[in-house]
Amino acid sequence: MTAAGTPTAAAHTSGGAGPRRGGTLTLVGAGDVDHLDPALAYHTVTRGIIRAYTRQLVTYPATRDHRRAGDLVPDLAVAADGPYDDEGRRYRFTLRDGLRWDLPNGPRPLTAADVVRGIKRLAHPMAPSPGLPYYLSTVEGLAEFRDDLLTLPRDLNVVAPYLEAAEVPGLRVLDGRTLELTTRRPTPDFLNILALPFASPAPEEYLWFVPGSPELDQRIGSIGPYRITGYEPDRRITLERSRTWDPATDPVRAAHVDRIEVRQGLDEKTCHDMVIAGDADMMWDIQPLTERLPEMFAAGDPRLEVCPAGLFSPYLVINVLSPNEGGALARREVREALQYAIDKTTVAEVWGGPRLNDIAEQILPPLCRAHRPFAPYAANDGAGDPERARRLLADAGYPDGLTLKLVYRDRDIHPETARVVRAAAARAGITLDLVPAGITELFGTYLGRADGAREGRWDVALSGWEPDWHGNNARVYLQALFDSSGVSDNDDWGSNFGHYHNPVVNEHIDAALSCADETTANEHWRAAEREVLRDCAVVPILFAHQYWLRGHRVRNWLPYPVLNGDLTNLWLGED
């Protein structure tokens, strides 16, 4: 099997020159990763580098064709086969020969036990993975294993040995290179779930650190072509070539550059100007300056790339647990008022204009195969209907309006997005007090904490959702954001940031996950979407396209499966 994306790569090589090895790829931006630990890493920019040092049993090819972006190919495993049994529940994988860890304490072979440990570790009671719901609802026995873990004291000396020794029926090591995974029921997208970075192998050393902890961040190992050689939070991340990676064992990564350096703490204009001037190669976590886009588009600037991405972004999360304003957001009329209060067209302008965005009136975007047009609250081509919003507030007992706290990310285009959302809400009598937060604080302190939601630290939040995979992917929106069936006693709501609970939605999600065929499953996904929108659980705002700016040296920039480009397949031309 040749390296994925090679035919596409040849079509995008400047001047017909082949790949050039060497050099340092420099990315510049404002903020940091959410986590370097693949069990917890979920932020878009983290995905930008995680492919360089993690691998999974199966993965996606590097390509610029969004129609191929959902194609699965083998990665650590020698094949990406479906189930082998008549029930469609058992999968057997054999690891490639010659796979080796590059760990701080030295190299060693990668084993099937490492793969199983990586999945078990997602249920860690001291820091569960945000991707855990995918696996709890899929892997046989994992939910029971998670429940047992929750009974343990929060002590690594207790948790680590239990994680290692306890057996999960759906995760079996057959020998050093072979493992068998069993699903609770036939699951057509199980290989997609196994391709997520969450399902990366974990060495035994990881058990003695809390997942995502600063201590572990300094000890992350590598099974990819690059290893992390330096990490200063909010300042710098450095990756250099792995000491153990063998290209003969990796069909999807090429590893042309010698070193990858991420410089953080810079403002948007500085980053933009550095890339334009050739002082940096790519943007990291921020978009190109929107005021420069019309000129760049008119000039056909090849350094600017626009890709359909299936982003549900931005959208407004509604905290239904908030006690503020007498628990106003628990009332459907208030949540419906928010649907009409927001002027989505002004947000679209902040995000680069109509060329780069589609107004969103629903949750499932056009690139999702379950998508069917549905717009229950459409008004004035996205501009909203503030008078109708005022009437709904009056019917809910708020004739003089109300005041809510809007939390948002404090970098890039997000502050301006918050300001235009605040201005639009004011038309309807809704005052939004702005609460800026860094990326880690936004998801760790606000959206990821049920106690903060209950205490009213925030009422609504600007967030976005990048699909975990493409094509047959309705679950990556609806299960991740709205399923409450797996909420545990410790209030782990995962990515259901608004703490939305509707048994009917849970039933449709469960029915969709129980379907062996995609057509019937998609009928249930659409029913779940209609129910969520009927409840006004979120305010859809945009389906944003992804756009990126890269420097003149960058060759073979391939946006899928990583939306800021697959760093392992690009190379640097001459200065």
Automatic annotation (TrEMBL):
Residues 1-14 have a biased composition (Low complexity). InterPro entries: Peptide/Ni-bd (IPR030678), SBP_5 (IPR039424), SBP_5_dom (IPR000914). CDD domains: PBP2_clavulanate_OppA2 (cd08506). SUPFAM superfamilies: Periplasmic binding protein-like II (SSF53850). It holds the Pfam family SBP_bac_5. Residues 1-23 are annotated as: Disordered. Residues 73-475 form the Solute-binding protein family domain. This is Peptide/nickel transport system substrate-binding protein. It comes from Micromonospora echinospora (Micromonospora purpurea). The lineage of its organism: Bacteria, Bacillati, Actinomycetota, Actinomycetes, Micromonosporales.
